[in-house]
Design brief:
Distance between the termini: 46 Å
Largest sheet: none
Helix content: over 70%
Structural class: mainly alpha
Radius of gyration: 21 Å
Number of domains: 1
């Protein structure tokens, strides 16, 4: 075998390919975490501020974009996060049912359990705001009850995500 052939075999051995795959997955995982956190925090900020201002035009605009951002960015990032995280934990030999991986998964599913009703609330709030604008009426009391619940669920999920970041970085 030639020197070039030996070099090619070494470069593309199973371990090298496995390490390269792990690094690609880690890169995708970090990017999706950034998208997930940034989109979640950013869109929540705009809807929160629009609601505080109580301007129906701002509320309609913000709620439409928040719902759109959840479908275009947050949902795919959530799926990518779970998939890449599970694959990398398996490749690294971490147990899924103990230690920091298990803690991270519990927090992930807790944050997801908060996020799913938040998505439903946002859609309903968007629809109520659009209807109030169309009919030139005030937002109904139900909108503001949904908004309070939306804030509470977000306030619960946000620290869970921060702890997940801590666990992913520190791996205690």
């Amino acid at each position: 075998m030639t020197a070039t052939g030996l070099l090619v075999n070494k470069l593309y051995s199973y371990t090298d390919l496995s390490a390269m795959l792990y690094l690609w997955l880690k890169t995708i995982h970090i990017i999706s975490a950034t998208v997930l956190f940034g989109t979640g925090l950013g869109s929540a900020f705009y809807m929160f501020v629009a609601n505080r201002g109580k301007n129906i035009y701002d509320i309609v605009f913000a709620s439409r974009l928040v719902v759109l951002a959840d479908w275009c960015f947050t949902t795919p990032a959530l799926i990518i996060q779970l998939g890449t995280g599970l694959i990398m934990a398996h490749m690294a030999g971490f147990s899924m049912v103990s230690g920091w991986v298990f803690g991270g998964l519990c927090l992930y599913f807790f944050a997801g359990a908060c996020w799913l009703p938040v998505v439903w609330l946002q859609i309903k709030m968007k629809d109520m705001a659009a209807q109030a604008l169309k009919q030139e009426t005030d937002l109904p009391a139900l909108y503001w009850r949904y908004e309070r619940l939306w804030v509470i669920l977000g306030a619960l999920a946000f620290p869970a995500v921060l702890v997940i970041f801590y666990l992913m970085v520190i791996k205690p």
